Amino acid sequence: MRIAVALSRSWQRVEVDPLTGALGTAHRGETPAEHAALEHALRLAELTGGSVHVLAAGPPETEEGLRDALAAGADRATRVDLDTPLNSLAHNGSAARSLAAALPETDLVLCGDRSADGGTGATPAFLAAHLDAAQALGVVHLELDGDRVVAHRRLDGGAREVLRLPSPAVVSVEGGLRLRRAPLPAVLAAREAEIAVVPGTPPDTAADVVSTRPRTPRPRAYPPPSGDTAHRRVLELTGALVDRTPPTVVGPLEPAAAADELLAYLRRQGYRS
Amino acid sequence: MSALPDTLAIVVVRDGALPAGADETVAEAGGAALLTGTGTARAAKELSAARTTWTVESDVVAPGSLAATLAPLLGEVRVVLLPASPDGRDLAPRLAFTTGRPLHAGAVQCGTDTADLSRVDDRVQVRVRFTGPVVVTLTPGVRGVGTPLPPPEPVPLDAAPGTARDAELVEVRPPEPETVELTEARRILGGGAGLVRPGEDGTAAMRTLTEVAAWLGASAGATRVVTDAGWAGHDRQIGTTGVVVDPDLYVAFGISGATQHTGGLGRPEHVVSINTDPHCPMTAMADLGIIADAPAVLAELDRRRRDD
Amino acid sequence: MTEVDAVVVGAGPAGSAAALELARAGRSVLLLERGPFPGSKNVYGGVVYARVLDEVLPEWWREVPVQRWVTRRSTMMLTGHQALTVDFRTEDWGSAPYNGMTTFRADFDSWLAGKAVDAGARLVTSTVATDVLRENGRIVGVRTDRPDGDIRAKVVIAADGVNAFLAKQAGLLPGTDPEHQTLGVKETLALPRATIDERFGLSGDQGADFEILGCTGDIAGGGFLYTNRDTVSVGVVLSLTDLAKSGRRPEDVLADLKAHPAIAPYLRGAELKEYSAHLIPEGGYRSMPPLSTPGMLVTGDAAAMCLAAGIWLEGVNFAIGSGLAAGRTAAEAVATGGGLDGYRKRLKSSFVLADHERLQRAPELVLSDRVQQQYPKLLCDFAQGVFTVGNPAPKPRLGKLFRDTAARHGVRLRQLAADAWTGLRTFG
Ligand SMILES: Cc1cc2nc3c(=O)[nH]c(=O)nc-3n(C[C@H](O)[C@H](O)[C@H](O)COP(=O)(O)OP(=O)(O)OC[C@H]3O[C@@H](n4cnc5c(N)ncnc54)[C@H](O)[C@@H]3O)c2cc1C
Ligand SMILES: Cc1cc2nc3c(=O)[nH]c(=O)nc-3n(C[C@H](O)[C@H](O)[C@H](O)COP(=O)(O)OP(=O)(O)OC[C@H]3O[C@@H](n4cnc5c(N)ncnc54)[C@H](O)[C@@H]3O)c2cc1C
Ligand SMILES: Nc1ncnc2c1ncn2[C@@H]1O[C@H](COP(=O)(O)O)[C@@H](O)[C@H]1O
């Protein structure tokens, strides 16, 4: 089976300034979902005698992640040269276009369920659309049934959809499957390995971003009160009829005091006697 | 047959069941709903925020062919809104691609010419402006719905079934016992990234959380960060892409309160947040915020459980 | 098995400096780091006195990742309700060649490791050295936690920081000695840049470095307060033995410092971003282990090269200095097939051991009860006496006031003179 794995831009973790909402990339981290995608790919390739080709669309730093993937056992690596600035968080789909153009003929494309730099998980679906491939998103379990891949995907309320995939198909997986550890000689070899670089397609229109700021929750609408008199409705709205303690924040507390506080609260609310 | 409006909610229905966030999305679209999938007429009766409902029934729920079916109908619709539920997230990019529109995924608010998108694990909010046609997905749980409206009589639309390569459905499995246990639990203790110190074993932390939860007559749930790391099974993940729960009591250990998490939380009567950050959204929405080190508090509770 | 000229364990300042020298000498060198990137796991206060970088790179200040350049250094002596501060500032430190800088370790360590990589060293991250390999009583390599992870090397450089795991495996250290280690705990607090500028009297990229004495109660130690661009670092360094005796938690000691009336106004409204704790080798010259064994050199914190005595916290510069020396010694040994004995001599002729030798009494003095407890109280009370206007009583005579204050605190003037003399010999 010819398998491709899409690894997102340099596996970078985005930092948000809590005061201004400005973005930075101070910390690098790994995305469990993409590691899981790679591990699935390596296992499927072993089972079917196939090959694994890893791709990433991003600036040269992205190659670090590709080299890690080669060390873990991927056969080939391609970087699509595309430097989307961090602050273009708003748009979706430009990576997919570039990746689709660079993809060799494949049976299965494995992606993470969302990228490390704060994505929304739309890239795999766009990829499927570009490739005219079937898709299975949010997959928590993959298995082989003969020569076909069967994917278990999340649905609402904890249900699972079991899908048998045609070729080609794009699958995005959640994390949970740990990536194998690369042997030291492979790590060293991967540093010298060749990574193909192909030009990317920059997005033709950027989203019109008005502002970027730290998140503030939006007020929620609730059904109106049902009381039969205006007076009761007001009481209901203000919560005056419910015996409710006003929201409190206590601390910083030591663990023992914090446990006391929690257990006392549970007792007050009748969860413990 | 009435023309479709400027702003329209598209809701994917399975076997007559509405997905999470259906009513909110319809409300955000001003009451105009198009239901597609299987059992749409039945599902239409369950909507509480619709003023007008159209239906496009299909044989199967598959994103490629649904997009191909719906695309020709959407010419006059400028803003297409879908809930960011599993099926909505599946269909939205395909619709955007097929109709050549930009996709603004993961919105927390959508107006007629701007949308607020939540990004970077819900830590920033980006406002975008649009003039042309767009597809937007709305995160469930962000807005709530007001006065319920009586469901209007649905108007079936004639649509030629489109085709595209889709996966073949083997079966839909009902939720696993663990998931059911969680959806029905009246009390839940939730574990987040803050419950596990860097470099420590999260699986052990989640096991302790489960034991302490049992001691308090509760079940243990987790955030996506925890399930992604493999510290707890996917059945334990609470949120818009996990299990939607509705407990009376929710105690959050080291959880920041991202909308994708709280969107699956229902409306618990009592919420406690144990977090080192007094300003995180979880603590802001809690009845009791305890500023403390969550792993240490859990260890202390575990000690008391053993002594009990 | 992987074979190289040299393997350096730990990509902290010491390890990167060693790898850089080896690579520059044309040797094949592997630099192992257990974290996902250099600096990812490293805790420190925040100020680097980086003049040693002159040996690494001309005009390093043009590219080093800096938060602020220190132009203000203060030493504060606190009692529960008083503070006496010696405050020094100079514009000279605000331009090249600079004196000290605040910087984040993730940035600084990555930058320095990058220099080694540019010179030809191979950095391998997320890899832990788990043991040394021995042959005929000689160390010939290290084992790592990766599959197929043994590395054979002509020289091993242990730059793995304060726990000195490799030196212990090699039998150079008997075991951890809590007497010679202190615990550093630190919080990083966010404040808007303009607020920091205003409160600390700074502008542009100027920074402040406060060392604090008398803020740790019964526990020997000291405190610090540094400014970054839009955060401040505040922390305490505590004697492990005293800490255990006192039964207090390090967070509490830090909380007390933050609440002190002389410190609290600097931090008002700041938001906690990060809390961290780490051990520091404190012993100085007298507790240094043997620095080499056949096939292996020990450098940086692993060799207790850190200068940490209450109000000093200089480790990064010593780590770089000793790392450079280790790298040069190793490169020479590989080239000539000779031994590693030149290492100590090299260190002695540089500031690294020279400073340590001269300051060898400093930890003892600074951590003595008198300097920790009595003198801050004495000086603060004396200052209060001097500055209190006691009308209608006449102003006291200073000599008498000092003698009286000293007597009240049970300080014998002879002891004071002796300490002053030690201090002079040590620092003078
Ligand atoms: C498409 C999509 C779907 C998603 N679906 C889901 C979903 O279904 N469910 C879900 O949960 N998430 C989901 N997410 C992820 C979600 O956006 C957040 O990333 C996630 O919920 C954050 O989990 P967390 O609160 O555990 O971690 P973080 O956001 O990292 O928060 C950790 C918290 O712990 C606190 N903390 C740190 N140390 C301590 C300590 N020692 N003691 C106490 N507190 C401490 C911190 O202050 C912080 O508040 C989804 C994301 C996307 C993009
Ligand atoms: C609270 C505190 C405040 C301080 N403040 C200052 C200050 O303001 N200024 C200053 O100059 N100094 C300060 N220091 C001291 C300074 O941090 C150290 O002296 C300096 O970091 C020593 O450098 P190093 O390279 O020897 O060790 P480290 O910086 O500790 O580096 C060791 C490296 O080795 C890696 N490692 C460890 N074991 C292994 C292994 N088995 N395999 C692979 N890799 C391994 C580690 O991950 C690490 O990256 C402070 C220390 C503390 C604790
Ligand atoms: N720039 C990129 N290069 C390679 N793969 C990507 C890129 N962006 C996203 N992906 C893949 O698409 C998945 C979902 O990303 P996103 O849609 O950004 O959340 C990621 O986990 C990757 O597998």
From TrEMBL, chain A:
PROSITE patterns: ETF_BETA (PS01065). Coiled coil: none annotated. Its cofactor is AMP; FAD. One of its GO terms (molecular function) is electron transfer activity. Residues 199-230 are annotated as: Disordered. It holds the Pfam family ETF. Residues 20-207 form the Electron transfer flavoprotein alpha/beta-subunit N-terminal domain. InterPro entries: ET-Flavoprotein_bsu_CS, ETF_a/b_N, ETF_b, Mft_EtfB, Rossmann-like_a/b/a_fold. Gene3D superfamilies: HUPs. Belongs to the ETF beta-subunit/FixA family. The electron transfer flavoprotein serves as a specific electron acceptor for other dehydrogenases. It transfers the electrons to the main respiratory chain via ETF-ubiquinone oxidoreductase (ETF dehydrogenase). Heterodimer of an alpha and a beta subunit. PANTHER family: ELECTRON TRANSFER FLAVOPROTEIN BETA-SUBUNIT (PTHR21294), PROTEIN FIXA (PTHR21294:SF17). This is Electron transfer flavoprotein small subunit.
From TrEMBL, chain B:
Transmembrane segments: none annotated. Pfam families: ETF_alpha. InterPro entries: DHS-like_NAD/FAD-binding_dom (IPR029035), ETF_a/FixB (IPR001308), ETF_asu_C (IPR014731), Rossmann-like_a/b/a_fold (IPR014729). Residues 181-265 form the Electron transfer flavoprotein alpha subunit C-terminal domain. One of its GO terms (molecular function) is electron transfer activity. GO terms for biological process: fatty acid beta-oxidation using acyl-CoA dehydrogenase. This is Electron transfer flavoprotein alpha subunit apoprotein. The lineage of its organism: Bacteria, Bacillati, Actinomycetota, Actinomycetes, Pseudonocardiales.
TrEMBL record, chain C:
Gene3D superfamilies: FAD/NAD(P)-binding domain. GO terms for molecular function: oxidoreductase activity. Belongs to the ETF-QO/FixC family. It holds the Pfam family ETF-QO_FixC_C. InterPro entries: FAD/NAD-bd_sf, FixC-like, FixC-like_C. This is Electron transfer flavoprotein-quinone oxidoreductase. It comes from the Bacteria. Its cofactor is FAD. The keyword Secreted does not apply. It comes from Saccharopolyspora flava. Keywords: FAD, Flavoprotein, Oxidoreductase. Residues 369-426 form the FixC-like C-terminal domain.
